[in-house]
Amino acid sequence: MMDSDQASRTLGIELIEATDGKAIATMRVTADMVNGHDIAHGGYVFLLADTAFACACNSHGPVTVAAGADITFVAPARLGDLLVAAAEERTCYGRNGIYDVTVYREDPGGHTVIAEFRGRSRVIAKDAS
User: Which of 28, 83, 110, 121 could bond 97 through an S-S bridge, CB–CB 3.0 to 4.6 Å?
Assistant: First the structure.
């Protein structure tokens, strides 16, 4: 799926891991992603979280899409920050799932949470072929 994701690749999003309902993706904040307040535009942070979410919910095999998502911005990201999005499945029921994604940046003293994202998934096909 990620090989065909032109939007994520264009933004430099790299998939680090995707297995068993979990995924980790990274993205460096570039000058094109900074808004008028000199911080990363929230839409780019959302897109990174959404990409990690998509990879986590598709790690099981069936074609799965977003049914909805919410994000809470906690701290600003800035030009040059390397953001990490860590997605994890919370529950699956029938053809539905709930996933949480934490977007953070590594800092010298640990990491700073940038945003918390909750995605709701829906399986649309029995297999990915």
Answer: 121
What pLDDT does 1 receive? Answer: 76
Rounded CA separation 56/37 (Å): 32
At 52, phi and psi to the nearest 5?
-65, -40
The domain spans of the chain are 2-123
What digits encode the pLDDT tens for the residues 55-66? 999 998 889 999
For residue 45, the surrounding DSSP H or E stretch is helix 42-57
Average pLDDT over residues 66-78: 97
Q: Domain 2-123 is of which CATH architecture?
A: Roll (3.10)
Adjacent-strand bridge partners of 73: 115
